[in-house]
Amino acid sequence: MQTDPALTGNSPPPGRKPRRATARFMLDHPLHIVSLGFGSGLSPVVPGTIGTLFGWLSFVVLNPHLTVAEWGALIAVGFIAGIWITDYTAKKMGVDDPSAIVWDEIVAFWLVLLLVTPATFTGQLWAFIVFRFFDMVKPPPIRYFDRRLKGGFGIMFDDLVAAFFSLLVIALWRMTI
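Predicted structure:
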């Protein structure tokens, strides 16, 4: 989950005002379209949750057409390219980790869904809830990485750690039933 500069103290370079994520900003460059989750990050409320919902919907749409290996490749490329893509958009916005950038949530939630599939709708819903918990609350060590790692790698990595903890909780829960 990303935060507003007003809430975190993240600030643009001296003399530069942060840019808001708008449809116009998003359409200024193709990398912004991806970073902002094809518009899902433009939500005025809970953009990370809306971006994760977009990730869930896109997974459901794409899953019948992709093999596990293709998903793995898409997630790996999405993560690696996401480092550069999200860094570019964050710099243009003048904020370290803008809440409107949701590509990190999308890729991380794809990983969660891939590793819990096959799962019923209810199972996917619980995966969503657990992932959002870890992404929003950022318990240690997620908070450590969120605060220490900067740029596109930092934007992408803390969500990958949230995905790992989500998968760990789901695996432990499955062991008990």
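Summary: The two ends are 30 Å apart (CA to CA).
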